[in-house]
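Practice problem: predict the structure.
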Amino acid sequence: MGVNAVMVRSHIRFSAVLAVALALAGCGRSESYRYKLTLAVNTPAGVKRGSSVTEVAFFEVSIPARGIMHKLRGEALYLDLGPGARPLIALVGRKSRPSSGQWSRDGGPATTQLSRLYDIPPSTDVMDTLAKIARMRGPRTITANELPDLVTFASVNDPNTVTEIDPNDLQATLGPGIRWNEVTLEITDEPITKGIEQKLPWIPYYYCTMLDGARYHGKRTLANTLSTADFDETGEAGKRIRQKAASDQDLECMKLLREWQQRSR
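Answer:
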């Protein structure tokens, strides 16, 4: 494997490591919370608004090393901007731009970002800080630069047409008159959002590849950098593949990819 090659299913391996670590770690503390990201955009047809709710669970572990592991369940925020318009999509948690708040695909917004938004004093006890965050409520306004990466598709049926969106210039990619109205982040009790596969129907078919259909990340293109894990971290697609092909999941993955490519021609 080349230096830049990254396995698409790294999130599967992380889940396996997490499961083993938790089984061996004993009775460490745990904490979880759900956060709601809301995007509101001014368009020529009026304000378009959409939200997604994601859950992050945290676990104290001592094996393989002492620390805190986390696991995210949720999906990208898909904002439909109307007929004929490209959608605005906030990825699950990928963060390639530097900002005051860093997002990760398996942890969501940084603890420091949420602590700042809710005026939680700094603490050396991370689990205590997480418990305080979990009790917070109410939306907090954030800037476009504090968002996870934003993308759109020239065709929602072709993942290879993915394009990055500049959060400070929506019009450049999404068209005239598209501007931010409001962006908020909040801790919530609402259910985890589901349904991204109805908006991006290729997700189950590209489970084992990058968005350009390649098995590994080795090119300097956005479609070869992103995988379905940047859009869906619910685990449902992987569960279906494991149920259908327990003995040869790679073969099943490639069959699904070819099936979608034939359907979309």
